[in-house]
Amino acid sequence: MPPVEDTTLELRDYLRVLQRRKWIIIVTVLICALGAFAMTFRQAPVYSTNASVLLQTSTASSSLIPSQAQDPTSSDRIRANEIQIMGGPQVRAEVAKTLGREPESASFTPQEGSDVVDIGVTSTNAKRAAATANAYAKTYIKVRRDLTVSDLQESAKQVEDRIVNLDFQIGLLTGAVNAKPEQTPIQQASDPDRLALSRLASRRDSFAQTYNDLVFGEDLAKHSGATVLAPAGVPGAPQNHSPLTNVLAGIVIGLVLGIALAFLREYLDDRVKTKEDLETASGQTVIGLIPELPDWKNREATQLIAIAQPRSAAAEAYRAVRTSVEFLALDQPIGSLQVTSAMAGEGKTTTLANLAITFARVGQRVIVLCCDLRRPRVHEFFGMSNRVGFTSMLLGDAPANEAIQAVRGDLPIGLVASGPLAPNPAELLASKRAVSVIEELDSQCDLLLIDSPPVLPVTDAQVISGLVDGVLLVSNSGTSNKRDVRRAVELLHQVDAPLIGSILNNVHSKDEAVYTYGDNRYYLDAQQPTEPERRNGRRGKRGAPAKAAR
After folding, report:
1. Does a structural domain hold residue 414?
2. 100 burial type by CB count under 10 A (0-12 exposed, 13-18 middle, 19+ buried)
3. Residues 187 and 313 in one domain
4. Which residues, in sequence order, are CB contacts of 442 under 8 Å at separation 6+?
5. At a CB cut-off of 8 Å and minimum separation 6, what does 153 contact?
6. C-alpha span between 163 and 19 (Å, rounded)
């Protein structure tokens, strides 16, 4: 079955993303911080100030107004009504007249647990902000005082009209009483006109007292009411010109935005970069992490690191792969090993050539077979000719002893190049003759290393995978695509290819943990510890039944 990608994320996965994308976060934070700093001095200054007004929600004069006396409104509601008056069109119009210009917008905020209202004004001019706030406060007091006086005068006018009406009625009843003949005190006490006259006189006295109170309240209202508790002062510094505050805000915004961009970039980035990426995409154990090699893609600069720099980190990494393969061969002997990749340019040939040197150094007889009949290159690593090779053996033009070229006298390595290019590589590899030639070469060595074309462009690698004991899938850090890796593994599983692991090339030391010891570097993520080089030959050879099965 093809591998199923595990999408479960742990905290270390998130931390790894942040570490890998740290430059996105750093650059975003710097841009936002510098932008905030620049905007601090480029934008117009904004000044803000407040004037505080103490409301009079329960004055003696207001209790004299019948409409107010009959409406027992709570103090919260009265405060809300007063705020509506402050921000109403009448007050704003009066403020505009006072200032001689259209005033800035004002905010009205009641202080909790008191009858104080703060009038806030924001402007690009400090003096205008203070003048507007104070104008709102004074204008509200004047308008509110005029409204109160007007209400008291209206109420006094209504009471005065009632008194005039009562005086008229009293005059009529007085005339009627005086026209009657003399009555005894008992008769006077029961006379209806006299009783009505008495009641009217009593009501007139009551209205007269109310009228006097309203007149007194009117005079009181002209000199009392709301007061300016604290006038607005001219602000000394703009509220938006605080470089430190703005830069800190920019850093916070940049950090949030940078983290979001980092995870978005990680989500959109389908490249294989780390061991975990390759294991997730392939579903195979990563048995080797090969560090960056100089000019490994340059056809004219091919070199065998295992020979040129045997004490380098790359050489040690290849030895780790060799040890891992030997441990895997304990249960199922591996006599032939195919090295392939999902796409071209991922370092499979470089890996195979260096593995050949590494296995030969421990005394194993190695034959390198180039089955890449389309773009052969492995012979270039060893400086050998491609005139005779695998296709020569397939066509019967050369026996094995002529096709196998000795690479070095001090190492038991033989090379079978691809030979003359054939027009039908897939058909040749699928032929019975190819099976016979591969078995013949396998019988003459301890390990047959086969270089094959990549899996996705052509079917050659799938055909070859049915003729070997193990397949290694090579990917390149930073260029290999997870989708391609998954598809390659899926195609190999469809033909029951014996995948034994994967190798990640071009690994940056910053992406994986590394120990340094002297001139050597040892990669912690290798699956098996490297063993000292030994000359005791390979641990085993696959048996006859395995050969017969092919």
Report:
1. yes
2. exposed
3. no
4. 335, 336, 367, 448, 547
5. 218
6. 91
Q: What's the confidence (pLDDT) of residue 72?
A: 45
**Angstrom distance (rounded) from CA 208 to CA 156:** 10
Q: Confidence band (pLDDT; 50, 70, 90) for 2? A: very low
Q: Which tokens hold the place of 343? A: 């796409």
Crossing angle for the helix pair 192-221 and 126-179, nearest 10 degrees? 160
In terms of domains, do 198 and 298 share one? no
Quote the CA–CA distance of 199 and 193 in Å, as a whole number.
10
What's the burial of 112, exposed, middle or buried (CB within 10 Å: 0-12/13-18/19+)?
exposed
Per-residue exposure over 6-43, b if at least 16 CB sit within 10 Å of its own CB, e if not: eeeeeeeeeebbbebbeebbeebbeebbebbeeebeee
Cβ-based neighbour number of residue 397 at 10 Å: 14
Which residue has 């030979």 as its token pair? 419
pTM: 0.58
Give the number of other Cβ atoms within 10 Å of residue 242's Cβ: 13
Report the CATH number that the domain containing residue 474 is assigned in CATH: 3.40.50.300
pLDDT tens-digit map of 465-504: 999 999 999 999 888 889 999 999 999 999 999 999 999 9
Residue for token pair 């103090």:
75
Kindly list the distances between the CA atom of residue 84 and the CA atoms of 63, 79, 134, in Å, as whole numbers in the listed order: 21, 9, 17
* β 47-54/405-408 pair status: unpaired
What's the CA gap between 383 and 24, in Å, rounded?
A: 44
Question: Could you read off the pLDDT of 103-151 as tens digits, one per residue?
Answer: 988 999 998 888 899 999 998 888 999 999 999 999 988 888 888 888 8
Q: Are residues 305 and 422 in the same domain?
A: yes
- Report d(CA 36, CA 247) in Å as an integer: 5
Q: 308 lies in which domain range? A: 272-549
Q: Which of 180, 209, 230 is the last residue of a domain?
A: 230
Written as six digits, the tokens of 229 are 């508790």
Q: How many CB atoms lie within 10 A of CB 510?
A: 8
Helix (H, G, I), strand (E, B) or coil at 288: strand
User: Rounded to an integer, what distance in angstroms lies between the CA atom of residue 118 and that of residue 134?
Assistant: 11
For residue 124, the model assigns a pLDDT of 86
